[in-house]
Write a structure and sequence with these properties.
188 residues; alpha/beta; 59% helix
């Protein structure tokens, strides 16, 4: 089963995954890390990231990043994974189709953008302004993150929606319980 952790930057996806992997034997795949590593490795023209993506989308099609993530991740259908970072439902659907995944759950973490900005600043050791964070949110919205949210809200059998007002372990407790139950059920 694939457990997708989705939400805006700073919402706690990576933290949630790291907490879960401490108590459950499950591999984490970070789509952003995969793309950044591929850019470093295969960018032979010293192009900017945006230019590199545009060049490869022209060459390989609009699903270039989804194809790249799917190939590099190389998931096995019989294993459980946490996948972090998708910003579009189309990306999730491509990954599922490419990997032959039928059983999946999307956990969407929404919430207080000021809290997310604070978390992002702390993680990245930066100090972006409220306006700069709002620009990040707008870019993620153009990528399709709101479609993931809408999908989760309309498909509760495949998604769970959380609204985070503070940094606490409430979401973690719910998600870890659900993942542990699924893994135990699969082992039977």
């Amino acid at each position: 089963m694939i457990h997708y952790f989705c939400g805006h930057r700073g919402c706690g996806k990576n933290y949630l995954a790291s907490q879960i992997t401490e108590s459950v034997p499950i591999e984490t795949i970070d789509t952003g890390s995969i793309i950044r590593e591929a850019y470093k490795r295969f960018n032979t023209n010293n192009s900017s990231f945006k230019e590199w993506m545009e060049e490869n989308e022209k060459k390989y099609g609009e699903n270039f990043s989804n194809m790249l993530i799917s190939k590099i991740a190389n998931v096995k259908k019989e294993k459980d994974y946490i996948v972090i970072g998708y910003r579009s439902i189309e990306g999730i659907q491509y990954f599922n189709k490419y990997s032959g995944i039928i059983d999946y759950q999307i956990y969407f973490i929404d919430g207080d953008y000021d809290l997310f900005r604070k978390n992002y600043n702390q993680r990245e050791k930066t100090n972006i302004s409220k306006e700069e964070y709002e620009e990040i949110v707008k870019v993620e919205e153009t990528m399709g993150i709101d479609k993931i949210k809408k999908f989760v809200l309309n498909n509760q059998d495949k998604g769970k929606y959380y609204f985070k007002k503070q940094n606490d372990d409430m979401i973690y407790q719910d998600v870890i319980r659900e993942i542990k139950e699924r893994i135990i059920e699969e082992e039977r």
